[in-house]
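BUG-432 | component: ligand-complex export | severity: low

The export step for shikimate-3-phosphate jobs runs without errors, but we want the raw record kept on the ticket for reference. Input record follows.
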Amino acid sequence: MNARFEPSRGLSGEIRAPADKSISHRAALLGAMASEPVRIERFLHAADTNSTLDAVRTLGALVEVHEEEVVVRGTGLRDALVPDGAINVGNAGTLLRLLPGWLAAQDGRSFTLDGDESIRRRPVDRIAEPLALMGAEMSAREGRLPPLHIRGARLRAISFTLAVASAQVKSCVLLAALAADGTTIVREPAQSRDHTERMLLAAGVAVSRERLEVRVVNADELLLGSVRVPGDASSAAFLVAAGVLVPRSRLLIRDVGVNWTRTGFLRIVRRMRGIVLGDLEEEGSALAGDEPVSDLDVAHGALEGTVVEPHEVPLAIDELPLVALLGCFAEGETIVRGAQELRVKESDRIAGVVDGLRGLGADIEATSDGFAVRGSGGLRGGSIDARGDHRLAMLGAVAGLASEEGVEVHGMDAAAVSYPGFAEDLARLALG
Ligand code: S3P
C-alpha cells in the first residue's frame, strides 16, 4: 500500500504512544513459561506481537484477549507442547531469537521456527551457538539462517561472551538459563536493553548485573503475576522526530517507557539541541524490577549535528534511521559509527536509510559501520521504498511531513508490524 505524506503545518496535541513491542513479546513468552496465569495490561496488538501470541498458543499456552488486557496461562518452564508444524514467527526477529531459549530446555522434543522473507535473512547462528554449548541440538539453513531447528535437552549453565551487543541474544541465553543446572553468566560488549532481566527479577528469579555481566540462577518456576506494558520508546521516537522537525509543533506524548537502556535516542536528540522534556531514568541506573514511564513534551526547534559513538548504538539501535533524518535538518554534520548491526535488521537499514533519504534530496553517504549526513536545512521530498520494513515506512512518513514537497511511501502497510494506526495518529495531530 502506498501513502502520501504532505508537508505539515504543525503537529499539536496529546497522544499515547502504542504499547512497547519488546516488553509485550517478553510478557507473552514469560507468561507461557510461568506456572501461574500472567495478566498483561496494555499488551501491544500489532503484527509482531500477535505472532508471539500465536506461537505460545501452538506451544500449549491458553491466551485470553480482552482488548488491551491479555491473560496467558502457561505450561511451565519444561512442558511446552510440540506443535504440528513449524512455528511461524512472521516478521518478528525478537520472537525468532527469544523463543528458542525456552524451547532448548524442552528435553527430547523438536521444534522448527520459520517466518517471512525478511526473517529468512536474519542470522540465527548467534543464538544457535550458545544454545548448543548449553546442550541443545541446533541446526539452521547454511548454518546461520532460518528455518531453525531445535532439539531440546537438559541444559548446562554456561559462561558466554556475546560477539555483538544484542538484547535478543542475551535474552535467549537468559531464558535458557532458567532451566539449566546452575548459574549462567552472559557478558555483552556494550549495554543493550534490559527488559528481560527486569521482568525475570519481577518474576522472582535471582538475576543480577555487574557492569556488562549478567548472572542468572536457574529457577523452578516463574511467578510473574501481572505486567503493565509502558508506551514504546521506539514508536514514540517517530512522534518525537515529527514534533522536533515540523515547524509550529508542540506534542505531549503520554506514558512512554523511559528505561535508560531504551532512551539513547532521546539523549541524542537533546544533544542536537532538540526540545524533549521528560523524566528519563538516569543513565547507568542499577537493575530494577520495574519499567519507568514518563510523559514527553516535544517542541519544534533548530538542531545541531552530532556524532553517535559505538557504545551509544545499542541504546538507540531502532531509532538510528531517525538520527539520519534529523541530521538532514541539522546544522553541520551528523555521523553514526559502530552501527553495522543495522545491516541485519528487518532490512539492511544502512542501505535503506541512505538510498531512501538520498532519493528525497539528502546529502548522506553510507560508511562501513553507519552513515554520515551533511545537514542541508531540510529535505525536498519525493518517494521512498519501505522495503517491507516498518521503521523505514514510518521514517518516510515523518520525512514527508517535514519536507518541502511531500513524500510518497511505498509499502506503508509495513508500519503495522509495530505501530498500527501510525498514519492515522499523525493525521489526528495535524494542525488544520
Ligand atoms: C530487541 C532488540 C534489538 C532491537 C529489536 C528488538 C528486543 O535487537 O533492534 O527491534 O526486543 O530485544 P538486537 O538486540 O538484536 O540488537
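Assignee comment: Attached the raw record above. The pocket of shikimate-3-phosphate is lined by residues 22, 94, 166-168, 171, 192-193, 317-318, 341 (CB under 6 Å).
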